[in-house]
Design brief:
Elements: H1 2-19, H2 23-43, H3 45-50, H4 54-106, H5 114-126, H6 130-153, E1 180-187, E2 197-204, E3 209-213, H7 220-227, E4 235-240, E5 243-244, H8 250-255, E6 257-260, H9 271-276, H10 284-293, H11 297-302, H12 320-334, E7 338-342, H13 350-363, E8 368-372, E9 384-389, E10 392-397, H14 399-405, H15 408-422
Parallel strand pairs: 3-8, 3-9, 6-7, 7-8
Antiparallel strand pairs: 1-2, 1-4, 4-5, 9-10
Length: about 425
C-alpha cells in the first residue's frame, strides 16, 4: 500500500509538473492577450468599423483564442493522464491488497470481515494524495500569475510620502492665499532619456494668474504632474508657500488644488456622482451653482433624468465639449484656492470657449490660477506668460511685452489670429 501511495503521491505529481512545465505561463500570457484584444476591440469599435478593419480585428481575436485553446487542450490532456494514472494506481493497490488478504482469510489468520475493510481503506487512503498531482500541475500557472501581480505590487512608487508631514504653511505675505514656485526644476520620465523639463523657474504668487504656452510636446502638462506630486523632479524644488511639497502630506497638498485636465475621466455613474467626486458633502445649491458656472444648465435640462442621468463608460454618452464642461464644474465645486487649467477649452467651439473664459475670469479672480494652453485667447488678462519650448522657458513676460519681442510667442499668436480671422 505504501508503494502505491508513494507512486501516486510523488511519481504522478512530478510527472504532471514535468509535462506541464511552461504551460502555466503560456496560458496566463495567452489569456491576458485575449482579454486585452477584447477590451481594446470593444472600446475602439467605432474607429475599427470606420477604418474598415473589423475583419482584421476579428481575425486577431480568433488567433488569440486559438492560441489559448491550444494551451488549454494540452493542459486538459495532461490532467486526464494524471487522473487516469491516479485511478489506476488506486484500483491496482486495492486489488493487490485484497488478493494478498484472501489467503490469510482462508487460513483464518484474519477475520473475514476485514477483507472489505482492507479494500475500502486502500481506496480511502488515496484521497489524501490524489489532489497533489493537480496541485503540481497548476503550480506553473499560479507562479506565472503571482509573478505578474508582484511585478506591479513590488514596483517602487514614483513618490513616497513623508513619514512626518509638515502642516500647510501660511502665506508669507499674510494674504491668506496659496502660491506655488518652481526652482530650477529638471525632469525626465526615465533615466537616460531626454529631459522633458529643463531648469524651470517661476513663481505663482497667491492670487496671481500665470499662463504656460507653447507648441505641443513642449512639456506643459508635465508641470501639472509635478505640482500635484504625481512625480518628483529629478532636480530642483517645487514649493507651496515657500515649503518643499515633498515634506507635505499628499492629501493636504492635493486638497488645495483643483485641476481641469484635457483628458477628463468620467466614471460610469450619474452626472451628479461624477460632480460629487470633487466634494461629496456639497449641497444641492452648490452643485447647481457649479453647473451654471460651467454653462451646463441647459444641457442638464435636456437630459432625461437631469443630474441623475448616467454618463456611460468613460463618459462616452457625452460629447468631448460636454465632458470638458463637467470637468470644469467639478473643479469649481471643489473650490480649492489653487486652480490649474490644462487645455481647459480644448474641445469647445469658439463661442463657448470665449464665454467660458470670461466666466472663469470672473469666478477665479480671488484664486491662484495656472493656465496651461496652446490657445492664446484672453492672454491680456494674465499677469505673466511663460513660453515653453522643448522643455525650457524661452520667453516670459506680459502679453504686450511678448508681442513686442517678435519671438516664438508672436509667431504662435500671428498663426492663431490668421486661423481665427480666416474661419
Amino acid at each position: 500500500a505504501l508503494a502505491f501511495l508513494a507512486a501516486a503521491g510523488l511519481g504522478v505529481p512530478f510527472l504532471a509538473a514535468w509535462l506541464s512545465r511552461g504551460l502555466g505561463e503560456q496560458r496566463v500570457t495567452a489569456r491576458a492577450e485575449l482579454n486585452t484584444q477584447v477590451i481594446d476591440g470593444l472600446q475602439g469599435i467605432r474607429d475599427v468599423l470606420a477604418l474598415g478593419r473589423s475583419r482584421t480585428q476579428i481575425e486577431s481575436l480568433a488567433a488569440c483564442n486559438r492560441a489559448l485553446g491550444r494551451v488549454q487542450r494540452r493542459i486538459a490532456s495532461i490532467t486526464g493522464l494524471q487522473v487516469a494514472l491516479s485511478d489506476l494506481l488506486m484500483t491496482t493497490a486495492m486489488w493487490a491488497l485484497v488478493i494478498l488478504a484472501i489467503p490469510l482469510v482462508a487460513a483464518r489468520y484474519i477475520d473475514g470481515v476485514y477483507l472489505g475493510v482492507i479494500g475500502l481503506l486502500a481506496l480511502a487512503s488515496f484521497e489524501a494524495v490524489q489532489p497533489l498531482a493537480l496541485a503540481f500541475q497548476g503550480l506553473g500557472h499560479s507562479l506565472a500569475a503571482a509573478g505578474r501581480v508582484f511585478a506591479v505590487a513590488d514596483a517602487p512608487p514614483p513618490v513616497v510620502e513623508s513619514a512626518a508631514p509638515q502642516p500647510i504653511p501660511a502665506d508669507p505675505d499674510g494674504s491668506g492665499g496659496f502660491g506655488l514656485s518652481f526652482e530650477h526644476v529638471d525632469f525626465t520620465y526615465r533615466r537616460g532619456e531626454r529631459e522633458v523639463l529643463s531648469d524651470i523657474s517661476f513663481d505663482l504668487r497667491p492670487g496671481s494668474r500665470v499662463a504656460v504656452v507653447g507648441p505641443s510636446g513642449a512639456g506643459k502638462s508635465t508641470l501639472v504632474r509635478l505640482a500635484l506630486r504625481f512625480w518628483n523632479p529629478v532636480s530642483g524644488i517645487v514649493r507651496l508657500n515657500g515649503l518643499d511639497i515633498r515634506s507635505l502630506s499628499l492629501h493636504d497638498l492635493r486638497d488645495l488644488v483643483s485641476v481641469v485636465d484635457q483628458d477628463t475621466y468620467l466614471f460610469n455613474d450619474s452626472l451628479r456622482a461624477n460632480l460629487l467626486l470633487a466634494r461629496p458633502e456639497a449641497s444641492e445649491a452648490e452643485i447647481e451653482a457649479a453647473v451654471e458656472q460651467a454653462q451646463l444648465t441647459e444641457f442638464v435640462r435636456q437630459l432625461p433624468q437631469g443630474l441623475k442621468t448616467r454618463v456611460g463608460e468613460q463618459g462616452l454618452q457625452l460629447s468631448g465639449g460636454e465632458r470638458q464642461r463637467v470637468a470644469i464644474a467639478r473643479a469649481l465645486l471643489k473650490n480649492a484656492p489653487i486652480l490649474i487649467l490644462d487645455e481647459v477649452t480644448a474641445n469647445l467651439d469658439p463661442l463657448t470657449e470665449r464665454a467660458l473664459l470670461d466666466a472663469l475670469d470672473e469666478l477665479t479672480w480671488d484664486r491662484t490660477v495656472l493656465q496651461i494652453t496652446h490657445r492664446l485667447l484672453g492672454m491680456e488678462r494674465i499677469d505673466e506668460i511663460l513660453v515653453l519650448d522643448h522643455g525650457s522657458i524661452v520667453e516670459r513676460g506680459t502679453h504686450d511685452e511678448l508681442l513686442a519681442v517678435e519671438g516664438l510667442y508672436r509667431q504662435l499668436f500671428d498663426v492663431q489670429q490668421g486661423v481665427l480671422i480666416f474661419s
